[in-house]
Amino acid sequence: MKIIADYHTHTTFSHGTGSIEDNVKVAIQKGLKTLAISDHGPGHAFYGIKKHRFQEMRDEIDRLNEKYPEIEILLNLEANFMSVDGTIDVDDDMIAISDLIMCGYHFGSSPRKLFLDMKMHLFAMLSKYSKGFYEKSKKINTEMMINAMNKYDITAITHPGAKGPIDVIAVATVASQKNVALEVNAKHGHLTVEEIKVALQTDVKFILGSDAHDPENVGEFTASLNRCIEAGIPADRILNAEG
User: Fold this and answer.
1) By residue range, what is the domain housing residue 61?
2) Which whole number is the average pLDDT over 139-147?
3) pLDDT tens digits, one per residue of 91-140
4) CATH number at residue 165
5) Under the phi-then-psi rule, with left for phi > 0, alpha for psi from -120 to 50, and beta for the rest, what region is 232?
6) Distances (CA, A) of 5 to 8, 90, 92, 186
7) For the chain, how many structural domains are there in total?
């Protein structure tokens, strides 16, 4: 199985260490056919992209697509789940110039409905220490992801389950219906092998993402690929694989 695209890489537009072109050069060296630049959405309180710079990213990617015809470069966004109601931090203007939108849950997302959304973060943080908070967090996070998939045209959910527990079968079922892929993230360890096996009970598709925050890790899929092989995902269920 060969992974031919990396849809999850970060740059200095959010909190990566390299430029878009730095990531492109490494992707070409590693033989990738497609690279997506997927910096954090503007709703992240600490390192989200500034909305007014999103057009600057579009222009730079268009320029680099002309400069490097041997690779397809896409403008992606790792949007943030902002609220239990499924709101994410993109607007119509951002969607219009994006090639795809992925979405992940991060603790740094600014709450929209103060009490409810702060509770979402609190339960997720406490879920590692209490069975009760684990179940509460799982219910909220699952509802949040399902609501978002019903509201938006999302390409994939990044590292589902990494920041807070989810009901994998429920999320995967809706994802398969909405044509949303679930990411096997090389950096965060989710989906885990067991989570992949659960998701495979549905028709959901998967992607492998490096989640590279520095250029040298672009196209680094070893950890996620090993989990896919152990879980037994067929290559035709992975959107960025061939063979």
Assistant:
1) 2-242
2) 96
3) 999 999 999 999 999 987 876 666 667 888 899 999 999 999 999 999 99
4) 3.20.20.140
5) left
6) 9, 24, 26, 14
7) 1
